[in-house]
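Quick one: co-fold with flavin-adenine dinucleotide.
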Amino acid sequence: SQNQHESGTKSKIVVVGAGPVGALAAIYAAERGFEVEVYELRNDLRDPSTTPLNFTRSINLALSERGINSLRASGRDGLLERIMADTIPMRGRMIHGKKASGSIYEEAQDYDIHGRTIFAVDRGGLNKHLLDELESMPNVKIFFNHKLVGANFADNKAWLETKSPAGETQEIEITFDLLIGADGAHSATRYHLMKYTRMDYRQEYIDTLWCEFTITPKANPTSTSKHAISPNHLHIWPGSDRMFIAIPSLDGSFTCTLFLPSGEFSCLATDPSTIPAFFNASFPGVTALIPPASLIAQFEANPHLPLISLTCSPYHFRASAVILGDAAHAMVPFYGQGMNAGLEDVRVLFDLLPPSITPTPESLDRYTALRAPDAAAIGALALANYVEMREGVVSPLYKLRKRLEETLSQYFPALGWATQYSRVSFGNMRYSEVVEASRHQGNVILAAGALVVPVIGVAVAVWMAKGGVKCYTRAVWGLVHGQVCRR
Ligand code: FAD
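Sure, here it is.
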């Protein structure tokens, strides 16, 4: 009787796009007992001949609590465990740089005072686990090589392009009760949805391109490590307008990403022989991990891709269509939340849909009302975090605030303090509330600072008036000459 039309047939949910978000949405829908059809543009990524879209190979992502929680809440036994078995915990950032003396250093910064970690995961690997799970569910049909090309959301119909066995392009018509569009940043579902609902839409390309590199496993692996650098950190080489990062893979390699203004990419492309010198100046130590000839080869072979940030609202039309994941809110990757937020969309949506009947317009109204401010909040945080990752992580003020907030979180848990990063990555508080809580903490710190600074000023003035300056001079003199001020 669950999810049935009055006629007795089950309600049908169509999912467009079988990326991580679409695949999880299909699992949730099937687990609820709907009849589910999944349409994916590309070939099955479990087929070794499939080239991953946009990437030369599958990229590594940071999976954190929101994504994990949504996988856990899918209700599928063992799914989360199978996915987590293929991940590597990353306990913090490892900042790489050069001292004034010219020597190269590494500085570890734990993400969390309570020891919680984020996890490096292969995007393709995670997607494969989800597709395997889907295939094991009897009420799911998956159609690869099907491209959504048209939709009529008033009449619950859509059209998809596919190839006939003879290789000719053909169009098929499908019907649905609800269509979930999880077809990525350049979503065709969103494009068609715009014709049915008064959707506000905004997109921005930042002036930074990214290119992927690989650090290969150690040539002579030890019994404890096949990784050339710590496998339990997200490695960052920060720079004022550039950044290089490395995320560990299970095979001992690292997937690395170069982020650089587009003009700089063009300069390097004009004369690739300058690439090793550029790396030595910008990202000290990288040429010891990726030999110069390989750096040049990878820069030339791998695509230089743009970064888009987009917001829109509403996400739905009546009870017939809704968009999730990058289709609704693609964001720049600097908070490591794009996929996590998309997986969280699925949990939030299915929490709001009535459990045992066809989705209602009211439930989708509630979904947009709840989720649009959260997606806008994390999109803005992701843009702001680019500055923090490049510059903030080495700034004393950033470190001071982090230490203060973590100390309060550890020793005065009743105050409920936490860093913004830990609320985003280790909790499930709404993103918009995270921003609010962080703003509140910032204001308290400022107010406390405004009180403390004058008090310190007065104390120093009194101390100096009492002859402290003489003692200070003597103390410094004493330190230099091995004596102690005993006033
Ligand atoms: P996609 O992964 O884009 O999947 C969409 C699917 O829809 C694809 O399979 C596509 O083939 C299919 N499709 C497209 N059009 C059609 C059509 N017309 N018909 C049918 N099917 C269609 N996120 C994190 O959480 N952590 C990270 O550390 C992180 N790092 C990142 C680093 C980089 C460099 C980048 C670029 C992104 C990163 N992200 C990260 C973001 C993450 O990759 C995306 O948020 C996530 O992949 C979105 O999943 P999705 O399923 O919504 O969309």
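If it helps, Residues 205-305 form one domain.
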